[in-house]
Amino acid sequence: MPAEDLPPTDDGTQLHRPGPLRWLGYAMGAGLPERHRAWVLHDTTTKTWGQRHLARALVQMSVPIALVLVLVPGPFWIRGMTALGGLLLGLIFSFAYMPETTENRVKKAGFPPGTAQAVRDQAAVGRTAAESERRRAAAEKRAARYRQRQGR
């Protein structure tokens, strides 16, 4: 999908996805211009926000991991194990502070603190209601089939 042709959000705001270099800077912690404001909120609140956070964390950790693998003297297996240990420790910290990190990104985009969590909570309520309705309809269909087989 071209960067400017994303579908509008629920409130009609047009999403402007950043280009690859801007996204790389965003993943490393830089802010984005005002026109990407709605996209930042989308990025931190969509259903796949956890995977997106993981991708940003891996991009951030790729620089020190590459430096360890290339510049540290010694056998490659020791450098590799050191890099793996650093990666695992970095991922643990990244997941531990995932909500705070995403809130900081949203705050940097100009939204009030707590906006990302509130949007995710609201979406969860909507998904729960839709799932409950789907289950209720399925239960009614099963009950109707049962009554039909029983001749009632």
Distance separating the two termini: 54 Å
| Main sheet properties | none
Mean pLDDT: 89
Structural class: mainly alpha
Note the total helix count: 6
Number of β-strand runs:
0
Radius of gyration: 22 Å
Gross morphology: flat
Helical percent range? over 70%
H/E series? HHHHHH
Stretches with pLDDT under 50, minimum 5 residues: 1-5
Beta fraction of the residues?
under 5%
Summarize the structure in short.
This protein has 152 residues and is mostly helical. Helix content is 71%, strand content 0%.
Describe, in plain words, how this protein is organized in 3D.
There is one protein chain. The protein has 152 residues and is an all-alpha fold. 71% of the residues lie in helices and 0% in strands. The protein has helices spanning 20-27, 37-45, 49-71, 76-96, 98-108, 115-150. The relative contact order is 0.09.
